[in-house]
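Entry:
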Amino acid sequence: MEEIARVYAGALFGAAKDRGKLDAIRDQLAQFVDALHGNRDMQLFLFSPYFSSAEKIEGLQKAVTDAEPELSNFLELLLEKGRMPAIFRIQRQFNALWDKENKRLGVTVTSAVDLDPEIAKRIGAEIEEQTGTTVELTARVDPDILGGLVLQVGNMVLDTSIRNRLEKLRKSVASAA
């Protein structure tokens, strides 16, 4: 399913980029996915094998108005091919491509207590400098890490938490015994 999402997202991204509509299609795709996520009846209708593609497309055209033609055509294609259940993954893949295109990087900093906003800003600035991207920093609090930081940059994790250090020490002592 992830490969399917990657291929479809790439196709939509390419069409949107070629027509200079990346931001508009990204926003409209997010609106559609949010609406779909919040409406179980709509999911049942669009994902169900009991309704024909023509019925689903007709329902989609009534529900989705004023969308960019590229997005409308894309959603209809998903219905024709029976790929609508992949829409949530497609959106995630599209957003990842958009972030890469716009040199944006999601960073999550987890600490045991609320971080001073100035420290969070410095962490974001340092990552921006090292990566050459615009950082979208999210700060989380997790008292279970005891102290230190867990930094997630993209799909990489740097864990300098006390919990992690204690776990490594425990494993070291256990293997030495």
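The beta strands are 104-111, 134-141, 149-153, 156-159.
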